Amino acid sequence: MKSIGQFINFLLAMVMTGGMLVSLGIASAWFYLDSQLPDAEQLRDVRLQIPLRIYSAEGDMISEYGEKRREPLTREEIPDAMVKAILAVEDSNFYTHPGVDYKGLLRAAVSLIKTGRKKQGGSTITMQLARNFFLSPEKSYKRKFLEILLALRVERELEKDEILTLYLNKVYLGHRSYGITSAAHTYYNKELDELSLAEIAMIAGLPKAPSSNNPLTNPERALKRRNHVLKRMHTLEHISDAVYEAETAKPSTASRYTPEIELGAAYIGEMVRAEMVERFGDAAYTGGYHVHTTVKTRLQRAANKALRTALDAYDMRHGYRGPETQIVGWQDANERARQLGRLLAVGNLLPVIVVDIPSEREIVVEHADGSRRTIGWQGLKWASPYVSVNRLGKEPKRAVDIVSLGNLVRIAYVENEKDKQGELRSYWRLAQIPKAQGALVSLDPHTGAVIALAGGYDFFHSKFNRVTQASRQPGSGFKGFIYSAALAAGFQPSSIINDAPVVIEDVTLDSGVWKPSNANRKFTGPTPLRQGLAFSKNLISIRLLRSISIDFALDHVTRFGFDKDKLPDGLALALGSAEVTPLMMARAYSVFANGGFLVNPFQIVRIEQEGVGTIYRAKPLRACEVCPADEQAPRTVSAENRYLIYSMMKDVINMGTGKDAKVLGRKDLAGKTGTTNDYKDAWFNGYNESLVAVAWVGLDNSLTLGRREFGGRAALPAWIDYMRVALDGVPETEPQQPEGIVHNGADFEDVTVEAIFNPEVLDVLDEKPQAEDDLF
User: Fold this and answer.
1) CA–CA gap between residue 25 and residue 560 (Å, rounded)
2) Contact call for residues 426 and 413 (beta carbons, < 8 A)
3) Which residue from 16, 132, 239, 336 has the least number of CB within 10 angstroms?
4) 3-class DSSP state for residue 738?
5) Residue 376 class from Cβ within 10 Å (0-12 exposed, 13-18 middle, 19+ buried)?
6) Are strands 450-454 and 496-499 parallel, antiparallel or unpaired?
7) What is the CA angle 226-230-232, rounded to 5?
8) Helix locations, 259-329, DSSP H
9) Exposed, middle or buried: residue 397 (CB in 10 Å: 0-12, 13-18, 19+)?
10) Is the CB of residue 748 less than 8 Å from the CB of residue 530?
């Protein structure tokens, strides 16, 4: 008996020792894992991931960037029906459990023992919140244990309403939507308080499986899940029998809604996005930044329209290149809808399929939604076939000369076009995506603020930003800077230069000589500088550059913001052989517009952060005669020099290569056309004292635009159309004449400079220019 008692005592001791060891092990594991957990108090400080949003100066949305869209709410802002719907299917005991549903966990454990498979279950809202904020998505026993520990800690440190609010603001609900507000916008384009109960139930059914229960990707399953939510609400007596029956009978009304882009300025949006990433890294996409730009809504729309109109006009001059493709099986309405549904509008050019040719001079086309419209002869007759960039085919006589049934084509709306009688008419026309591209940028010359920017025909067709990324030769548009250098060297607008043929040695050419000429192959002999610039005389520019020396000219040109090391060191500089971007040209012309100051282009006015306020505000250096030194942009060109160039460039519009701009009816406009060899680039750079605008047209592959596609023909129309809007209501202003300048009243020689060699006034060369006899 004694041995039996001893054995029992031994067993009891072993059990107690084992129990203590197990308890100690569990406690050790508890403390070890607990030490790895974050402080639940951090939840209050977690910044919800809100996408980057970019706005115009007036507050119109330009772009949104970021995979996660969140719009956080306070508990008071969350509708009671949404709370009841979520709790009904996710955690009906939320307000009574301590953060962990032990019964649910036990059921999951029993299921594991019976089936041998892990099954997700027993997760409370608190546990889901803990997992989403702090833990990895892996499914493991350790993570589940950490999830339980952290949920208990969260419940100790946060109130129930705080936990629920954080969950509803963070939970992923599919299609980039995080939180119930974003989901309401994404699926219904409504605010939370505008949702029906059926719509609330649809959103409440998403947390469990936001992809497979999604109303957009799996509408049948989503509808079943929605009705399950409603049934749970009915079971819990949150809704009556009548409401339950009425709401479950409703069809799904979910659709894909994206943030409303109020202003088409995607090129500037991409510039801002890149700058924000440079400032904040990847946090730019999630930090809740709202960026307000310098872009003015009305002027941006004008720039978009002006550039597209000019490119469309160029394209129509060179003929119709034919349909985009032939649709196989076009007779099938479903096939037509499928093919058109894959395509987006490019600019304002809509994709359609030719479905009927009812007469010789009209066609019927069908849109993606099945609607049809008739295109009459006035919208077809322009479409002579394209043969080459310099040649058109025979003028069409019938619609079948242009298109065939089943052709996929584009159409565009022509609004308020004047006919030969001066009457306004609007109609639809056959169109095509332009082969040429372009750019238009406009600056406030006093600050450098970018007020409009179109980097191409359509950003979503080509994301290459020609305003900032296309380095092209400016042609004669560069001559203004050479003439400015000549004035700084002592020339005057009335100085005479010989416009005559010249032969220059050039060992880089096979012939060993360079024989530059004027664009029209004509010469005017001795010519005042004023006329030489107005009519863009190449030979005058070359002689002028050779007279003042290339080195002097290069030094002077850097005053307009150009990099000397990237400029050609030869006489071809006079003809604009440098490679520059439209933005660089706009900055340089701002010096002429603002009185001689070099400003820096910028596009961000201020940056605001959700929950923080304004974190950045631009403080650009300004073109101002009298202002604090830390606010003043550097003066790089004298007031006298700038005044004379302004006067000479006004003549470019008054009587020279830019005379078509006289249609604007203003006397304060100045500018310069630019055309490069073989018509590869067409420019117009123009301004008054209020704003600068630069337009460029060319092919991305640098091939020719075609004969006679001068800057005044291809680019100037875009500049005119933009300035017509931009200057509406802007009073005319004439530059103030500096004291060192007097008028002598002679034609083309109306300005002379007193104290021209005073370095305090003009900072010019110490010696006078060569006499005319020495100028070749």
Assistant:
1) 76
2) yes
3) 16
4) coil
5) middle
6) unpaired
7) 115
8) 266-280, 297-317
9) exposed
10) yes
Cβ neighbors of 58 (< 8 A, separation 6 or more) are 296, 297
> What tokens does 635 get?
């003066």
């002598």: which residue's tokens? Answer: 744
Query: What pTM value is reported for the model?
Result: 0.80
Reply yes or no on whether the pLDDT at 106 is more than 80: no
Residue 373, both tokens: 């419209």
Residue type, 565: D
pLDDT in tens, 195-230: 999 999 999 999 988 988 899 888 899 999 999 999
CB 385: neighbour CB atoms within 10 A? 16
Q: Is 173 exposed, middle or buried (0-12, 13-18, 19+ CB in 10 A)?
A: buried
Residue 144, exposed/middle/buried by CB under 10 A (0-12, 13-18, 19+)?
A: buried
Phi, psi of 444 (to 5 degrees): -80, 110
φ/ψ of 141, rounded to 5, equals -65, -40
Residues 6+ apart with CB under 8 A from 228: 89, 205
For residue 223, how far is the Cα from the chain centroid? 38
Query: CA gyration radius for the chain?
Result: 36
Residue 660 to residue 723: CA distance in whole angstroms: 13
Q: Does residue 292 have a pLDDT over 60?
A: yes
- For 661-684, the pLDDT digits (tens) are 999 999 999 999 999 999 999 999
Helices (H), 403-549: 479-488, 529-534, 538-548
- Would you say 484 and 710 are in contact if contact means Cβ atoms under 8 Å apart? no
Residue 695 burial class via C-beta count within 10 angstroms: exposed 0-12, middle 13-18, buried 19 and up: buried
List of long-range contacts for 342-348, beta carbons under 8 Å, 24+ apart: 343/368, 343/408, 344/460, 346/410, 346/433, 346/457, 346/458, 346/460, 346/461, 347/308, 347/457, 347/458, 347/461, 348/308, 348/412, 348/413
How far apart (Å, rounded) are the C-alpha atoms in residues 94 and 96? 6
Within 329-445, strands assigned E span 350-359, 362-366, 372-375, 386-388, 391-392, 407-418, 424-431, 437-443
CA distance 166 to 43: 8
Q: Is 415 helix (H, G, I), strand (E, B) or coil?
A: strand
To the nearest 10 degrees (0 to 180), the angle between helices 80-90 and 125-134 is 90
Check: CB of residue 413 under 8 Å from CB of residue 668: no
Active-site residue list: 90, 476
- Token readout for 32 is 């070890």
Identify the weakest region by mean pLDDT among 70-74, 243-247, 487-491, 737-741: 70-74
673 strand-pairing partners: 684
- Residue 395 in 3-state DSSP? coil
What length is written for the chain?
776
C-alpha span between 138 and 384 (Å, rounded): 64
DSSP 3-state of 71: coil
Strand partners, 359: 362
| Contact by Cβ (8 Å): 492, 483 | no
Q: What is the DSSP string of 620-653?
A: --B--SSS-GGGBPPB-S-HHHHHHHHHHHHHHH
With tokens 């079971």, the residue in question is 235
Angle, alpha carbons 707-678-463 (nearest 5°): 95
CA–CA distances in Å: residue 210 to residues 171, 207, 515, 699: 10, 6, 72, 46
Residue 49 one-letter amino acid: Q
Low-confidence winner among 339-343, 379-383, 438-442 (lowest mean pLDDT): 339-343
Q: Which residues pair with 408 in a beta bridge?
A: 325, 353
Instruction: Return phi, psi of residue 146, to 5°.
Output: -60, -40
